[in-house]
């Protein structure tokens, strides 16, 4: 592609922004472990794979690795064809999707690394990253006979000279990643193992490293081994809230999926009817979604993938970033339901692009003159008047904007303020002395009035000294 023209288009999209535009930033790196299979067995992985392809401009997809799950041990190798079908559908739709970013061509496959936000990868690139992982479940098979293309890919990615972390989105079992850890532990120094572990973050959709009937046998799972041995060096998120809501809300709102997702473009043509629930694995990459709402490296910041804190895990023995206990589970549940309409409409808008090659763009949020997506850090004193101005925010399509400011709720903390005019582009308030030593997380949420009422966000983290 003509990178210069692409970047010029990205800069034009952020005209008037004094900070580097978000489109000039590198994508977050993700690797997916999926037990994708036939629609009468694992339709939810097919659904999540379609959604991931619709957001291929937002993630650097380093690998899509087939692996075991609750409904398959061993993993049938022929099931990989369902992943291939989704990539084939993406290949048909990507010319339309590219119009969303004014992209006209692809980089050569061997150069499709260090991808920037807005870049749609080629189907050939995705095919080169779609490989087999461990076909058997549990910690018992980890060892010298369990190396696979997937575990070798994970090691190779960690060795690349790229400072960005790699998020492993675990839709099935994390056995393939555990095998990579085991091999590095056997073949490298303790310091090298430490560096390897710190390169990764795992977001696991419950614990699926066993067949469903064994799901409470935590010791069988390689996940328990990872938590027990490496939780001080490996960020491991164990979700027990967002995936349940994703399933249930999707079933309750299935008519919207049938009308606005299925049949829209080639990707919509391979989006199957639900069986167990709708897209239960999707929160694993929604947590990493670069939309300005949260920093994925801080799981206490709520995002589209829920909110978590570090503590004892559901096995009662090991620790992880998780959300299974109250009051956090209730807080996460409320936010997941709050964001779900935005999350769905955003997906539906992208499926319109896939089908028609035109549609709506998301707004761009500016706080003062600060663009980008990373949280804005602010230091404040008790009694100081703080003023935040988002009036320079804009919509690339010229749509009108509406604003909503709110503070994130945290367990055991009362909400710090009720803002006087949260629907205004500008808010101000004074933190009282009772907030000294605390951090306030203020969210600016913006919607346009175009089709699907698309969202954008920006987080401000205020440290009251």
Name given to the CATH architecture of the largest domain = Alpha-Beta Complex
CATH-assigned homologous superfamily of the largest domain: Ribonucleoside hydrolase-like
Total individual domains: 2
Distinct helical segment count = 13
N-to-C CA distance: 49 Å
Low-pLDDT segments, ≥5 res: 1-20
Strand content: 15-25%
SSE run: HEHEHHEHEHHEHEHHHHEEHEEEEEE
Largest sheet descriptor: 8 strands, mixed
Indicate the CATH class of the largest domain. Answer: Alpha Beta
> Which whole number gives the mean pLDDT?
93
**Structural class, from helix and strand content?**
alpha/beta
Q: What global shape is seen?
A: globular
Describe what this molecule looks like in 3D.
The chain has 465 residues and is an alpha/beta fold. It folds into two domains: 3-356, Ribonucleoside hydrolase-like (Inosine-uridine Nucleoside N-ribohydrolase, Chain A), CATH 3.90.245; 376-464, Immunoglobulin-like, CATH 2.60.40.10. Helix content is 31%, strand content 17%. It is built from 13 helices and 14 strands. The protein has helices at 3-13, 43-54, 80-98, 123-128, 149-158, 175-187, 190-198, 222-230, 242-252, 254-260, 265-269, 283-286, 328-356; strands spanning 29-34, 60-66, 130-132, 166-170, 200-205, 235-239, 309-312, 319-322, 376-380, 386-389, 401-407, 426-429, 439-448, 455-464. The strands form three sheets. It has an eight-stranded mixed sheet, with helices on both faces. A four-stranded mixed sheet has the order 9-14-13-11, with no helix packed on it. A hairpin with a 6-residue loop joins strand 7 (309-312) and strand 8 (319-322). Helix 2 packs parallel to helix 3 (80-98) and helix 3 crosses helix 13. The chain starts with a helix and ends with a strand. Mean pLDDT is 93; it is low at 1-20.
């Amino acid at each position: 592609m003509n990178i210069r023209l692409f970047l010029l288009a990205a800069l034009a999209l952020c005209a008037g922004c004094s900070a580097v535009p978000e489109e000039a930033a590198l994508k977050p790196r993700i690797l997916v472990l999926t037990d994708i299979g036939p629609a009468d067995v694992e339709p939810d992985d097919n659904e999540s794979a379609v959604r991931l392809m619709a957001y291929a401009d937002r993630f650097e997809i380093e690998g899509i690795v087939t692996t075991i799950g609750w409904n398959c041990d061993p993993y049938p190798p022929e099931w990989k064809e369902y992943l291939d079908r989704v990539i084939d559908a993406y290949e048909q739709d990507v010319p339309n999707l590219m119009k969303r970013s004014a992209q006209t061509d692809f980089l050569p496959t061997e150069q499709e690394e260090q991808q920037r936000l807005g870049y749609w990868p080629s189907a050939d690139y995705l095919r080169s990253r779609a490989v087999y992982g461990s076909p058997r479940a549990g910690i018992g098979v980890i060892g010298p006979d369990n190396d696979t293309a997937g575990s070798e890919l994970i090691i190779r990615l960690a060795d690349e000279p790229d400072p960005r972390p790699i998020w492993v989105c675990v839709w099935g079992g994390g056995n393939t990643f555990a095998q990579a850890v085991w091999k590095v532990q056997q073949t490298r120094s303790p310091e090298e193992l430490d560096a390897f572990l710190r390169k990764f973050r795992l977001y696991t959709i419950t614990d699926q490293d066993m067949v469903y009937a064994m799901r409470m046998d935590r010791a069988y799972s390689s996940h328990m081994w990872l938590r027990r041995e490496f939780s001080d060096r490996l960020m491991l998120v164990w979700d027990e809230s967002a995936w349940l809501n994703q399933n249930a809300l999707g079933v309750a709102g299935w008519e919207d999926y049938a009308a606005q997702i299925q049949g829209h473009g080639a990707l919509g043509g391979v989006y199957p009817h639900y069986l167990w629930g709708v897209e239960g694995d999707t929160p694993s990459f929604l947590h990493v979604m670069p939309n300005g709402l949260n920093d994925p490296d801080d799981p206490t910041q709520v995002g589209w993938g829920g909110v978590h804190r570090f503590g004892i895990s559901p096995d009662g023995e090991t620790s992880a970033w998780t959300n299974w206990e109250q009051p956090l589970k209730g807080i996460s549940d409320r936010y997941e339901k709050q964001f779900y309409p935005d999350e769905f409409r955003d997906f539906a808008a992208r499926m319109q692009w896939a089908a028609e090659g035109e549609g709506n763009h998301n707004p761009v949020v500016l706080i003062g003159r600060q663009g980008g997506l990373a949280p804005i850090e602010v230091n404040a004193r008790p009694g100081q008047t703080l003023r935040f101005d988002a009036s320079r925010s804009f919509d690339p399509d010229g749509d009108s904007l509406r604003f909503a400011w709110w503070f994130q709720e945290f367990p055991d903390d009362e909400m710090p303020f009720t803002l006087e005019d949260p629907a205004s582009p500008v808010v101000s308030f004074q933190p009282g002395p009772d907030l000294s030593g605390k951090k306030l997380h203020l969210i600016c949420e913006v919607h346009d009035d175009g089709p699907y009422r698309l969202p954008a966000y920006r987080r401000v983290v205020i440290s009251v000294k």
